[in-house]
Amino acid sequence: LKSNPNNNEEKEAQTQLAKSDELQRLHSQALSAYQQEDYEAAISLLDEILAVCVWDAELRELRAECYIKEGEPSKAISDLKAAAKLKNDNTEAFYKISRIYYQLGDHELSLSEVRECLKLDQDHKQCFSLYKQVKKLNKQIESAEEFIREGRYEDAISKYESVMKTEPEVPIYATRAKERICHCLSKNQQATEAIKLCTEVLQLEPTNVNALKDRAEAYLLEDLYEE
């Protein structure tokens, strides 16, 4: 304005300054809400700010944290992926994305993201530790599925039992392992054991189609047609 004063530009400048003050106020409120663990309010305020400050990596990371606390991991992934692109060498974002995918049971995507972290910093302790865990689990699952394709059901069962030992803390891996063991037992004509294990899976996931099909096959082996 000092170099080229005119009414139109002054109005524009005043409008932008007012918007800037408003965004700073919203930012303070968002941080306060986050500190008070009112994550829903923080998300709502951050939505308003990010509608204007689209390329702010730190605000996206903060909103991702709120989404994680609110139990909405897929929305957190979206913000963290943007933050990983917006900020150079953002190992922390890749680590968090990998952890979320791992917790959701998507070991392949988890492995892919943690590798991105290690490309940026091969000595990153958290990423390296997670990488070792996911790589081991991934290898066991791939090996078990290969055994199933070859009809080596006993070997597949043994491998899926190893999966449950490798990851006892994240329940989805045990559920998936039991689902696949049930499939192997059914294919191996071990009907009683298959029915028992499939029922266990279906108590956790009543609409699990694979477990329903495999239990049905096991019931057929036992001549339990109504079931």
TrEMBL record:
InterPro entries the UniProt entry points to: DnaJ_C3_Co-chaperones, TPR-like_helical_dom_sf, TPR_rpt
UniProt superkingdom: Eukaryota
Species this chain originates from: Tachuris rubrigastra
Disordered, as annotated region: 1-21
GO terms assigned for molecular function: misfolded protein binding; protein-folding chaperone binding
One Pfam assignment: TPR_16
A biological process term (GO) from this entry: protein folding in endoplasmic reticulum
Recorded name of the encoding gene: Dnajc3
PROSITE patterns: TPR
Protein name: DNJC3 protein
Record-level GO cellular component terms: endoplasmic reticulum
